[in-house]
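STRUCTURE REQUEST FORM
Protein name: RND transporter
Source organism: Hypericibacter adhaerens
Requested output: structure tokens
Priority: standard
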Amino acid sequence: MPDRRRPTLLFRVFPGFMLERVVAALVGWSARRALIVVLLLAALTVWAGLHVVHTLKMNSDTSAMISDKLAWRQQWDELGKLFPQNNGLLVVVVDGATPDQAEDATEALYEKLALRKDLFTSVRRPDGGPFFQRYGLLFLPVDSLQRLSNSVAMAQPFIGSLRADPSLRGLFDMLALAADGVAQQTGGLAMLQRPLGAIEASLTSALEGKPKPLSWQTLLMDRPVEPRDLRHLILTQPVRDFSSLATAASASRFIREEAQALGLTPDKGITVRLTGSVALQDEELQTVTEGMGTALVLSIVLVLGLLLVALRSAKLILASFITLLVGLVLTFAFASFTVNPLNPISVAFAVMFIGLSIDFGIQFGVRFGQERYLDADPATVLPRTGYAMARPLTLAAVAIAVGFASFLPTDYRGVSELGLIATAGMIVTLVLNLTLMPALLALLKPRGTPREMGYLWAAPVDEFLLRRRRWVLLFFGLVTLLGVGAAYWLRFDYNPLHLRDPKVESMATILDLMRDPLSSPFTIETLAPDIEAAQETAGKLSALPEVAAALTAASFIPQDQDAKLAIISDLQLLIGPTLDQSAMRPPPSDDEIRASMKNCAQKLRQALPDLPAAQALAAALDRAAAADGSLYPLLTELLIKGLDARLKLLSVALTAEPLDLDKLPEELRRDWIAPDGRARVQAFPSGNANDNDIITKLVQAVRTVVPDATGSAVQIYESGRAVANAFRIATITALVAITLLLGLLLRRLRDVLLVLAPILVAGFATMLVCVLIGLEVNFANIIALPLLLGIGVAFTIYFVVNWRKGVTHPLTSSTSRAVLFSALATGASFGSLALSSHPGTAGMGLLLLLSLVIMLTTIFLFLPALMGPPPSRG
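Status: completed
Returned output:
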């Protein structure tokens, strides 16, 4: 019969029990040279800490978490190089209560931003500016333009009157004349219903202390207001300071200050919000940092509490805690040299490290306290402790490191970098617990603690698990089968926006924008050889039901120009001279305004007794005339202020001329035609792109026309596929690597299966619970299942090894107590992540904690039943 104590291949480089001897020698050497070891590591830690503070950065760009070697990433990067003006945008979203307010506020703010070349490398209006002001009428359908022309033509006398006297007096005198004139025309009443109602509503709002400006644009356009009329965008590229968490803080602050100075505030019916990739990344960095800081502090506090319960010695706690902090700093330093900057996923290693690393300190400290209790001589106690803990600590470190290292070969750089840092962290913590920890204990000389057994109250549970073994196995077998079935229903949410806090301004704004497909940030783009090919592609894409619209540079060349220009020319002849005249009457006095109001109210009652809007306006005018004159400046702002700007814009629009590609502004051409002549095509989703199904259908449909299409929607979709593939690779890699490790250690297929079975059962049970509670897998929490393979092995193997030695009651053994404290330490770090204010971090912590609880349940209940009586009992 072979010698069961024969060394395995993992440790065959050290004959016999050489591993234990080497570790014992290292621990003894560290204890004998304790002061030197502590001073050297202290110096190294100080240097490493300073290096981390000055060099370690963080990048919240989720696209950077996917390998840039993938084909779709390279296509996306090429598009960014050809159109750099679309990279790193800080988007200003201006909403107004009326179209007039929205346009005027956006233009005023745009002019201020365009002057600050020190804060912005570019500022542009995608839906406004001189080009659209001049050619905007050409983009209206012919029938809509004709209606506008008719409306303006009918209003020409009134416009002339207001141009001559642009004041409250001029407005109400004009309405009085209009009432007389319309009353004498058959069918003319309906024409006044809408403008009179709009003026009455604005006037009444001022009287009631809730001022709402009159929209002259709405009156002139003679159509209902659409949501797009009330919103405009300003696209800026801010100068960024990457040494700060808020890289565009100066630009953002200037925008907010200027908006305030211009009176663009909610109380005046205008809101100014910031979003775009820069705002999202800046707020994401701040949210992640704040959440991770809270989780880090909470994790440390919880770990200190566990140390107090487990070690019961201030000196042992101090030694363990110092070892933990040194390991954390050194691991941060490793990260700064290897994967700098961190990403929102890899930054989680800090909290994970605390829970996983402190387990080593607890195990070493408890064993030392027990050995010290039996032997007062530290010179022999520490080497003996090292000898006893050599294999358990090495095994735990290797198993957990293998779980983290399984992420290394994946294309998901977010978890790949986390895996690299955490793998190094496990090596660092193992080395420190065998060097720094003994040195600190040699200097501090803590007292011994009596050996404690496991939980004697659990003996009936042990007996029950053996007595009802078949029923227990049947139950967990059923759970496993349900978990296998639930795996089909487990949803993977590949949208990184769902990992962000929806309450912060940048996220709330972008979610608002996505309600309108044509302002959605998730679009598909492709490059065509020339503008003709781009138009052909756009035509094919527009025919797809999944596409709301497909734009090219040619989209800015209006159709039916001859017919539209003829209408505009006729309107210019009619109203052009009226628009060109300037005011002739001096500003009115309060008495003149009051008299005009009274006269208008009287005319409305006499001439239009059957028109409800006229009677309501007459009543409002009576109230206004009876009010104090201090109300008139407000009424002027509400009723008159927007008129002059609208008439000026109309005057500019009447100068439109034939338009072709050569006449497009250079700024607009650069947005659609690359320097090498290739033309960009952009397709918008026909639905809210915050719905993953909309993105999926859009990408799949567009690829039937353009297989190599790229864009933000493709990036989101393909990132999800890359992450799912990374998960599969990591899981398989971890399972294979850990199986090989167990084979080398245990050398029995039965024992290897005993170790792996609870982990697999826990994995499927976790999937089942996720489906039942509606917890989706996403970019962040997907690391849970492969990682739990490594952590689970570190727990289960202790029970299997004890079972091989003949331990009959695993729950009452000291192993169960050690595993429970180790799990509590790990759970403390995972649980603190779950309490983070950042949804992605919290989701990661929640699934890790849930997986850990289920893992412990299977280890404590399923594994004893699966093992049955130990081999020594026949």
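Reviewer notes: The first strand starts at residue 90 and ends at 96. Residues 276-311 form the longest helix (36 residues).
Form closed.
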